[in-house]
């Protein structure tokens, strides 16, 4: 319970709590994000966006820049960037080829279905959220090396040397980072039974060097991914985890591999959307929601107006109900993706929707599919000067993951095991409910909500977008795409605009506080919607890149964080 409170507070601290209400649209002058001619990186930290951009300036492509950006985030954004987590990448090459990489963590070989239940069969959520037992086998290093092997053009040494330099030289602590470090200091010390680098008292503007991470990265430059999975770094990781009661072994590390997957692809009016496939629920849920709302004229209803909120909420309700039942690791669970995102099924799903009153979540279950047998995070987008585009979301799950730090490596380790369904019907830290499809099993990947997404318009690359935010990731990506497509916003306004979220259960619609018209919220209440303006100060922290009609790139770096768009 204590840790759940920590988590909620994290969400509050996650970003600034700017309270400036949106200006009335009629008086509003659109805000354009950074505009560049050829290439751009938008990420949670300026240092990471700059390092990725420098790699492209040297002639590297978006994939080279991905490797550098991801590792720079491990240095400068330990809240979610690390060597001890995992992620997903969706790409679209200049020639139109699309694909996806899954470097999600997986359950250790010794994991069991009931490993987080007590003797009475009740979930002990602390165990899946904090400390060594919460850690899934990390995928990050396998991920960046898989990308480099397939698409990289510069030597790994050239790509990672600037990151080593950043770790040695240090990064400047922002105000938001200082608040987060202060907030977690005691928990870091409690979980690690000792102080750690990030448990020092910092002031805004201090420089934080991570020499140990620099040394680890140098070993990785020399020995490649095997340094992490079978070498000295792996041994240091396993020793640390086992010393603190975890179950990850060298065999787990040796067996880990990143997997190339077919992304989910669907259309929404004249857009073609490419998003992450299972083991993320992101692409499937996004497709379901967008296909369910496609018949409605949102641009006529208006941005964040009653009817728009109703249609989106009702589509979200139905998609998240399906998520909880059907989705899990595709290597373990048969997922009827084509049916789930097919128009006949989704039309049927929305058939009982009425503008008159809210559907109750208790009246919605997963849809019936004939013939089917049951069986804290960060995002960055990159576009290069060659026309390649990528969209990457990575995570340690909660803030600083399990809070267990590996001092000899210089990184935090994830608490991704909480993304499994520890027991059918019992919500995880994001309130998400799961069933057999997402039950724990050795070597299984836990279901994610991460939704790195690429959008094409008229057959050409148009947008790369994604966000952190747990269960709110899917709905934040959705609203950002709609903000540009339906409501004509700039990329920057689209990521800044106030957001709301619904996920079937609990049966509430969460709104960012004080940013929505009270008359609209009242009209929703009258129709039976439960409105919650308390739970989340912010929903998502979206980063994206949009191609403007003249071919230049506009970055959208969310005002809710320290996010920055850099390019040339
Ligand atoms: O994969 C997932 O869906 C979660 N582990 C993401 C966690 C997250 O976004 C945390 N940020 N608030």
TrEMBL record:
GO molecular function: glutathione hydrolase activity; leukotriene C4 gamma-glutamyl transferase activity
Pathway(s) it belongs to: Sulfur metabolism; glutathione metabolism
Pfam entry (one): G_glu_transpept
Source domain of life: Bacteria
Residues that hold L-glutamate according to the record: 104, 395-397, 419, 448-449, 470
Catalytic residue positions: 377 (nucleophile)
Reaction(s) the record says it catalyses: an S-substituted glutathione + H2O = an S-substituted L-cysteinylglycine + L-glutamate; an N-terminal (5-L-glutamyl)-[peptide] + an alpha-amino acid = 5-L-glutamyl amino acid + an N-terminal L-alpha-aminoacyl-[peptide]; glutathione + H2O = L-cysteinylglycine + L-glutamate
EC number: 2.3.2.2, 3.4.19.13
GO biological process: glutathione biosynthetic process; glutathione catabolic process
InterPro entries (UniProt xref): GGT_bact (IPR051792), GGT_lsub (IPR043138), GGT_peptidase (IPR000101), GGT_ssub_C (IPR043137), Ntn_hydrolases_N (IPR029055)
Keyword Acyltransferase: yes
Record key words, sorted: Acyltransferase, Glutathione biosynthesis, Hydrolase, Transferase, Zymogen
Modification(s) after translation: Cleaved by autocatalysis into a large and a small subunit.
Assembly mode: This enzyme consists of two polypeptide chains, which are synthesized in precursor form from a single polypeptide.
Stated family: Belongs to the gamma-glutamyltransferase family.
Entries under PANTHER family matching the protein: GLUTATHIONE HYDROLASE, GLUTATHIONE HYDROLASE PROENZYME
Protein name: Glutathione hydrolase proenzyme
Organism: Aquimarina aggregata
Taxonomic classification: Bacteria, Pseudomonadati, Bacteroidota, Flavobacteriia, Flavobacteriales
